[in-house]
Write a structure and sequence with these properties.
By secondary structure, this protein is of the alpha+beta class. Helices cover 43% and strands 13% of the residues. The protein folds into 4 domains: 162 residues, no CATH class; 270 residues; 150 residues, Reverse transcriptase/Diguanylate cyclase domain (Alpha-Beta Plaits, 2-Layer Sandwich), CATH 3.30.70.270; 108 residues, no CATH class.
Amino acid sequence: MEEKIINCAIAGLLHEVEADKSLSEIVALAAILSAGEGTDMQEKETNPPQQMLTIFDSISLNNNIKTSEKHFLPLTHLSLNEKAIFPESIKSKNTQGNNYETIRENLEKIVKQSSTDPETYLETLLEGMRFWTWSVPSAYYHSDPDVSLYEHSRMTAALAVCLSDFPNEKISELLKAVTNDFHNKASNGDLKQLDTEIALLVGGDISGIQNFIYMLTSKGAAKTLRGRSFYLQLLTEAILRYLLHELQLPSTNVIYSGGGHFYLFAPISAKDKLKDIQQNITQKLLIHHQTNLYLALGYSSVPASGFKIGRFPEYWGKMHASLSHAKKHRYSELGNQFYTSIFEPPEIGGNPEKICSACGEDHPKVKLWDIEKGQEEQLYICPLCESFAEDIGKNLPKSSMVALGLGQPCDTQRGTAIDALKAFGMQVQFLSNKNEKINLPGAQKIIIWHLDDFQDQPSLDTDNLPITHLLRYTVNHIPLDKNGEPLPFDELQKKVKGGFEKLGVLRMDVDNLGEIFKKGLGKKATVVRLSTLSFQISLFFEGWIKHICESGDFYELIYSVYSGGDDIFLVGPWDRMPDLAMKIKNDFSKYTGYHPQITLSGGLSFIGGKYPIYQAADDAKDALDVAKDLEGKDGFYFLDHAWKWNVFISVNEKRLHLRPLVAPKELDKGSLEGPQAILQILQKLANEESNKGIRPVWGRWIWMGAYFLYRMAEQLEKCKPELASKINEIRNELHQNNYSNINQWGAAARWVQLEIRKKSKNE
């Protein structure tokens, strides 16, 4: 990479330039474009806040302002700690944690680091700024300091790299024009300069991810599924690094990467290179994944005026439109090679002994697969699925770090996941401790992904290769058997406490996320605010979901198929999953400052341990879609019904009221062990109410409920007075609400019935 590009990126990050007027003007221009607005020091508040506002406070859809209350992030380094990443209201804002002096001292140590490789120095500096300044406000020039110093600095660095293509005279002219325009003082001469295209906003989207992850049979799903999912994270990283390498761009130019998507800034000159680069990526993917995975690339040129506050979403939309067009015209970049590459007859076909039992695809090198002792049928596995199970799925849960070796791309043939990554110049090694020697032949530098918070950088043996340590939150712990192998799904379902041994498949995502990015910031929209929003959302779904799944009541019970971007796909014993869904929902609400327009919907379906995972994924997706069909979304589908979250919480409260009345002592020690007829009566009444037709208020379920519950309480009065009192409480609550919430009681009764079901003799 050219020295000028590295210098521009470093200067942009640090906002410091010594005795170089041209570089100084590049950084000054990039900083204004990044901020999207003027920064007149006279506007500075007399008593600026010492903490950064959460970006969610700036979101408003349909011109509905949520609240005047503000929520501040703690001033502390990045870590998976509620006190570190969750905002607090101004009334109780936390001034604990790191002060500015502590942050400055640690940053100075990083700036003064020594490295023989400029790119490694730059990436280490970037990661250090993320760790220490992710919640430090970049400026107090306006009333809402909702952008971090980290986000502003890295976007400044990205744009400085793009501006390095321009001659010095042009930079001076642009700086004057942009400064005048952003302070609303532009002249006619300035307006012409503002049409100058500054940067290329590039978007990448790997299509086919859903099918690639989920299109599995039940055969060995637990062994291969997590490996498949994590492989896609590695593949996205490998493709992104390959693209950066081919465009000669540093990592500062990445706006966001996650969930099979990435966005970056490139110089305008990159436009001529993108088609050839995409063609190379396509050919590599065809070799290793046929047409199962495809990278679509789209872009939009952003003029200087496009960075002004409120205008950037227009170009964000144009980039996405270009991306959508690319998806609809996939493989057009192959030109004359299209037919030979896509429609070439397969190597083999029709031989059942050449079909992989896991993914169902033909492969010339399938082999017999021993996934469990005493298996009745003969199973086969292809090299790709075997590598998901053995190279990735088995090693990931045991690892605290992943070493990525970056080098020259290789021409590899269809084979393992490791071969596919090598085609893009990446090698992988899983590390369980800091004493392991890194062995990645041909690597030119090493990136270490730390999968969780870490105290100190370990001194790993890399044979003097440049090394960068990055914090990359990943849900890597999954249920394991006594041998440390992924627990098969039919064994995981036995972790259910009652006799209804099923797995729960949970899918959740953010409602209206596209609209939030497109319209949510309104007139405050800038590139740096959009990148801040991306970072905040990914921190929850990649980081905090990890914290939830790997702690408390869910530890070693939850199989994380996928958690990234704004999507969640989790599998576990069904009786733990509703609580998990409510925990995620409640934490997300708190994380966003209880913003009424930033909501989360979910769907939960039941499956058996041998149920095909692709069908389970579809079932849970259907459940999620039903929840999103509710007015205003913000719902949860469970037990054949879509509930608004506040109603479902009420259902859960009723379930907690009912369970101690009827559960057997072996499940609940304090149970009153009442007759399960209570549950049957409530379900019967709910069914009667659900068939009421057009009569909205009353029906025979009202007098039936009053009579049956009264008679049951009367019969239990002498032998179990406490139980009789609890039943009367239910009857009175129903009467006070005119039985309008009987459907909630019916669902709660059904829920409890499943929880306390006894195992059959056959089981």
